[in-house]
Amino acid sequence: MNKVYFFFLNRDQVLRIRASSDDQIDKLQLLETLEHLQLDFWLHPSNPALPVDIRVPFGSLQAVRAFLGYHDIEYSILIEDVQVILNEEKQEMISNQRRERSNSNFNYGAYHSLDAIYKAIDDLAAEYHGLVSKLQIGESYEKRPLYVLKFSTGGPDRPAIWLDAGIHAREWVTQATALWTAQKIASEYGNDPSITSLLDTMDIFLLVVTNPDGYVYSHAKNRMWRKTRSKAAGSLCVGVDPNRNWDAGFGGPGSSDQRCSDSYHGPHANSEVEVKSIVDFIKKHGNIKAFLTIHSYSQLLMYPYGYKCTEPADYRELDTVGKAAANALTSLHGTSFKVGTICSTIYQASGGSIDWSYDFGIKYSFAFELRDTGRYGFLLPADQIIPTAEETWLGLKSIMEHVRDHPY
Amino acid sequence: MELEPSHYPAQRAAGVARACISYRRGGPNRVLTLSNVRRARLQVRGRERGPRGQAVNCTAEVLYHLGSQHSAPEVHFTVEGELGKNPDDADNKFYSRIKSLKEPLVAQNIPDSFGIVPPEMEPIRHLAFSACDYIIWQNSTENTWYNLAQIQDVRQVKRNDDYLEFDYTVLLHDFVSQEIIPWQMQVLWHPQHGVKVTQNSRQPK
């Protein structure tokens, strides 16, 4: 409820009424017509399956309770003292306003359209212009720009960390988490010693929306869309699974050659412009030291390999780093993560991004699968965005600190 | 053969066990979620879904039938500290509420795109979880890992007897293939008699 009142209230109450029949609904509708009571219906009486919420001015309380009692209508007190709630809400608004300087009235705890995310990215780059800049690394299939945020305190060709989210469109908590993370990194520089020392020697590149075409489609047409939106002549089905399209065991087990499949690997490796743009960027940069990709759901932290079920050469170190990161993550809200190779933890899957990055020489390659474990799955409620982002941040930070402290 | 509890073969089989056990205990307020796989052969620790969330220890044996004809995995289980089968207050309230509706209940997209479930739809959702447990159990193999992704559509079917009946179209997510599979199911429920899926069929994408 986002109601704010700017006149004095004296101990009004909000009652929640549960009508048990149509007859009782009729009675409540009658109550609605009694204007002298000055009742404020937050939920109107319509059918007995739904509750009726009424803010009752203090002066009308006795009359309303008598009416409900006389007609045997069940109710409970939802809000005992409205004034207290309003005071709290007003306080929250004031402190929100203090926290949100400049144009960032941006609500990080909500899901946003692509346009809104792109605007937030621009605003972030403007607000922290000394540290943050926006680069375009390419265009999606439907010609949407692929924007990467660069966090840098200067120096040419510094070793860098790559972070991406939203390669799969329907995993909405990941784009939301990435945006929050961008704001976090920017605001922590100069405040948090660890991030400050990291950014004094390394750069961070963050791709908030890796698959913008898919993301838009998941808003407009199909919430469960996963793939890109590339079209092929002679096929009714659209899109390629961008996380089966990398040049790592391409076309092998755990990917499909069927165009209509949600794990279709595409006609060849890097056929998807969204994937190729990242590959080209990383190759051109030449000094990326960590490749971290964010997915949902399942609560897992994984390292290579997915395309084969053998351990990578750096297995021991990656496992140690992974477990430390998972522990850091869990420490905040108790969310438990499993750690392991892709192949042993979820499935054999070919053409995945961190397998490519690892075989390319980027030792610290990790994939996160964020909340939850299936209760809401892809449809994670927005009130879990910030807790998810906060805990994930601790995991990311743990890995980034290790990368900073172990140059190679 | 002992399985590594955190690896996927144990996790998937545990999911099947959970679905089967949960369905048999059947009711919107008595769906089991999986907390932990301690030892795989399999000892599964479940937790009742919902605010009361009682922890329950289960031991289960899951047998996948291999061969060309698919048949449901066999699950042999014991549950420690089994709670009574008596319908609780919430079940009864839900039952009365739906029984007294003038028009049959119709709803779509639960949760919605933003993960929101209106409070009065929660029991409808829990009922769907319970019914889906049957479908998941019946259709699982070693290469599947099903979750209920969303209720696409639910319609109440008015009956003359004591049962409540709902026609659901749900979306199942198979984590292994990453496919979203629409599935239709006809669900009967009564606070005393539990949940029954009378009819179900996989739908085209």
TrEMBL record, chain A:
> Keyword Hydrolase: yes or no?
yes
Q: Which GO terms describe its biological process?
A: proteolysis
InterPro entries per the UniProt record, alphabetical:
CARBOXYPEPT_ZN_1, CARBOXYPEPT_ZN_2, CPA_M14_CPD, M14A-like_propep, M14A_act_pep, Peptidase_M14
Q: Which gene encodes it?
A: CPA2
Please indicate if the UniProt record lists Magnesium as a keyword: no
All copies of domain Peptidase M14, residue ranges? 110-403
One GO molecular-function entry = metallocarboxypeptidase activity
Know the name of this protein? Carboxypeptidase A2
Give the record's keywords alphabetically.
Carboxypeptidase, Disulfide bond, Hydrolase, Metal-binding, Metalloprotease, Protease, Secreted, Signal, Zinc
Where are the catalytic residues? E369
Chief location: secreted
Compartments, record wording:
Secreted
State the PANTHER family in the record.
CARBOXYPEPTIDASE A2, PROTEASE FAMILY M14 CARBOXYPEPTIDASE A,B
Q: Look up the record and name the cofactor or cofactors this protein needs.
A: Zn(2+)
What protein family does this chain belong to?
A: Belongs to the peptidase M14 family.
Top-level taxon: Eukaryota
Organism of origin is: Crocodylus porosus (Saltwater crocodile)
Cited Pfam families: Peptidase_M14, Propep_M14
- Any one annotated GO CC term: extracellular space
Automatic annotation (TrEMBL), chain B:
| Swiss-Prot/TrEMBL GO biological process terms | inflammatory response
What is the annotated localization of this protein? Cytoplasm
**GO MF annotations for this entry?**
heparin binding; metalloendopeptidase inhibitor activity
Report domain Cystatin LXN-type positions.
1-85, 106-205
Family the entry assigns = Belongs to the protease inhibitor I47 (latexin) family.
What does it do?
Hardly reversible, non-competitive, and potent inhibitor of CPA1, CPA2 and CPA4. May play a role in inflammation.
Its recorded name reads: Latexin
Species this protein is from: Crocodylus porosus
Lineage of source species: Eukaryota, Metazoa, Chordata, Craniata, Vertebrata
- The gene that this protein is the product of is LXN
